[in-house]
Amino acid sequence: MFITDSEMPLIYSLRKKIKNEGKLCSKEQFEKSTWKQFRRNINEKEVILYGTGEMFEYFCQFYLRYYNVKYAVDKNVQQGHQVIKNGISVFPIEKILEEAATCIVLVTPINGIDKIFSELKTVGVQSCFSFPVMEYHRIIIRAKMRLVCICKFHIRRYQMEWKIKNLERRIEGMEQKTQGLQNRTQGLQQRTQGLQQKTQGLQQKTQSLEQRAQGIQQRQTERYLYLLHTNRMINAFIDMINDEEMKKEQMRYLFTEIHKNTYVPNFENPQTFNEKILSMTLYDHNTLYTEISDKYLFKQYVEEKVGKKYVVPLLGVWETIEDIDFSMLPEQFVLKSTSGGDSKKVILVKDKAKLNMDEIMSKMRTWNLQYESDYYYNFNWPFKNIRQRFIAEELLDIEGLLYYDFKVHCFHGEPQYIHVVSQEPHEVTYFDLDWQPQKFTRLYPLIHYEIAKPECLDEMLTISRKLAEPFDYIRVDFYVLKNKIYLGELTLTSFGGLAPFEPVEADYEWGKLI
């Protein structure tokens, strides 16, 4: 049977109440005491039962294993006492008030539930459900579902009989259409063969076009390298004859045509940051600039100013490539040129056993070429007289770090901005001293995620003030690994004074700081 014998007494008593009183309970409690509301509100919560009579026995028989019952209360239990019934501890009703219970299930006869609801509501019970009402609601829904299922069964049976007859008629028509389709299929097969032949021809043409595109790309790369090499040769010749006007013209060309700045630089009356950097490379030739740009001598400057602990440990320095004793170097290290202004003259060695010596030596020999000097790209004077040597440093543990490179921009010895470099993808964000992100950028897009303020920021700013004291402008580069600080380099000509600001108004604002 769909409704069991044990459920029938409950139905009779509830229908009798409805007949006598015209309703089962208040509309509000009927809506709250549905199975849907009940299961949503007590999911993974402890339930307190109110009453231990026949309805309590019924609940324990069918539902005790489904819900986490904390205890039960009953008015027949004297205060201060406790009894065990069906494995559940039963306490006086006052225990609800003592624990400020919030979820109560009434397992009492239906008579008087509105009164109990009202009493529990006045003492602060937030969720109160009547088990008889919920059970009646559930049984009625089951009966309706059963009736719907019976109706659907008969409807489906008649529908299937009609469909079978309809399918028989359709099959006859489909057999006739099949013969026509077979004839059309033969024609399509012939057309397909023709299309396949055309496809093969198109594939051959595509391969030819891809080969042509690769050739064009290769020629463009070679042309770029040729122009870059030619530009350095021209600059070397201009430097040799020491023609200042030609230097300016070359710098203007790089500034506007290659790096796409939106204004022509003025070297005699510079206003923007980039103009003042370029003007410095033309007219301000302080020997200290060369010393701090040298990757080896810069370490001595840092040690004198702030101490040796901030310098990346040095493993060796050599005059020529042939002097390098690889046997004395550890399994991991970094090789650098003392005249390198970027990562082009840096080699990271993560496993010395896998090192290709011929490839390494060949690459390092190119560092000695005259036209590879950073000075000949845009007459960046601090790099002109650096003594070419080779150094090895400890390899810092940066595996898995999104960012570790912090660059402090100092004007007249005082830090003003810090920019952080994200590694993958290569992005940057500029911050002020209060660690508020700025709305401008330079050369690279803004970092797309939030950068936390480093705990060692005050220490970095203190170090930057000491190192930047002699200079109108300098950028102090730090590596921060597990809150340990290392000095990466000191940069007088950030991006060579060529990279445009976005927006360009920031270029003028920075120019006012120098």
What does this structure look like?
With 514 residues, the chain is an alpha+beta fold. Helix content is 47%, strand content 17%. The protein contains 15 helices and 17 strands. The chain has helices at 8-21, 27-32, 35-42, 54-63, 94-99, 113-122, 131-241, 244-258, 273-283, 287-293, 297-306, 357-366, 375-378, 457-468, 505-513, and strands at residues 47-50, 69-73, 83-85, 88-91, 103-106, 127-130, 314-318, 333-337, 346-349, 390-393, 403-411, 414-422, 427-431, 441-442, 473-481, 484-491, 501-502. Strands 3-4-2-1-5-6 form a 6-stranded mixed sheet, sandwiched between helices. Strands 13-12-11-15-16 form a 5-stranded antiparallel sheet. A 4-stranded antiparallel sheet has the order 7-10-8-9, with no helix packed on it. A hairpin with a 2-residue loop joins strand 3 and strand 4 (88-91). Helix 9 crosses helix 15. The protein is elongated, with a radius of gyration of 43 Å. The relative contact order is 0.07. The mean pLDDT is 86.
